[in-house]
Amino acid sequence: MKTTVTYQPRYLPRQPLNLPNGMTRRAFLGKVLDLLLVAASGMGIAAMVVFLLVLF
Questions:
Q1: What is the largest CA-CA distance in the chain?
Q2: Measured distance between the N- and C-terminal CA atoms of the chain, rounded to whole angstroms
Q3: How far is CA 20 from CA 17, 23, 24, 50, 55, in A?
Q4: What is the DSSP string of 2-42?
Q5: Would you say residue 11 has pLDDT above 70?
Q6: Over the stretch 22-45, which tens digit does the pLDDT of each residue have?
């Protein structure tokens, strides 16, 4: 059976993640910004609907 050998560099620019599917800080910040964008869009749509209901 063949084995695969990987080269482990002595210097890593970043620490490896603790978990295999762990989220980096940058990915977490992206998720938070997406959530804020969805919330702001939802509030804008709700405000437009309320304005249209009051107008007509």
A1: 76
A2: 76
A3: 7, 9, 11, 46, 54
A4: --------S--SSPPPSSTTPPPHHHHHHHHHHHHHHHHHH
A5: yes
A6: 788 899 999 999 999 999 999 999
